[in-house]
Amino acid sequence: MSTELFTQLEQKVGQAIDSIEMLQMEVEELKEENQRLTEAKTGQGEELEQLRQTNAQLQEERDQWAQRLEALVARFSETESETQSA
Question: Which residues of 27-54 are buried (b: 16+ CB within 10 A; e: fewer)?
């Protein structure tokens, strides 16, 4: 009977070792996935910052164009007023 118990215990220990090894592999895979996602998030953050800077630059350029157009319209209006009064 003690041989049977030792055999059962040996089987249970073997199963426990297999389970531990499987869990360790799963943990390693999860760590790698976490690292990959962290790197992807960092890359997206950098891309987002670059897009924000580009957006700010384009808004500044648009504002400058709007000012130039307003100045041209004002000059046309002045010229038109001068032409009509003359």
Answer: eeeeeeeeeeeeeeeeeeeeeeeeeeee
